[in-house]
TrEMBL record:
It holds the Pfam family Zn_ribbon_Elf1. Signal peptide: none annotated. GO terms for cellular component: transcription elongation factor complex. GO terms for molecular function: RNA polymerase II complex binding. Factor involved in transcription-coupled nucleotide excision repair (TC-NER), a mechanism that rapidly removes RNA polymerase II-blocking lesions from the transcribed strand of active genes. Acts as a key adapter required to anchor TC-NER factors to RNA polymerase II: stably positions UVSSA and the DCX(ERCC8) complex (also named CSA complex) on arrested RNA polymerase II, leading to neddylation and activation of the DCX(ERCC8) complex and ubiquitination of RNA polymerase II. The keyword Zinc applies. This is Transcription elongation factor 1 homolog. InterPro entries: Elf1, T_Elf1_sf. Associates with RNA polymerase II. It is found in: Nucleus. GO terms for biological process: transcription elongation by RNA polymerase II.
Amino acid sequence: MDAAESRPSHLYTRLTLCAMGRRKSKRKPPPKKKMTGDLDSQFTCPFCNHEKSCDVKMERSRNTGIISCTVCLEEFQTPITYLSEAVDVYSDWIDACEAANQ
């Protein structure tokens, strides 16, 4: 008795199909480039509207962010975390100004 005759026919066809060839591999897309530019640390003052007149200082030891305008001397202070950036302090200041206006 032959070895092929003792096997069920569906097993034999599966074995031969797998050995015949392989699927074409798809080409992976290139990895996305990360943003390399730094975020701004000088912003427009919401009170005097001077561009790049507000400087942000991050005091990580005290967990506070301080933003102050060099023209009108307006100042704002907010709590920060280790993930906070200068733009977060500025957005908190803008949100506080909008809340005070309403």
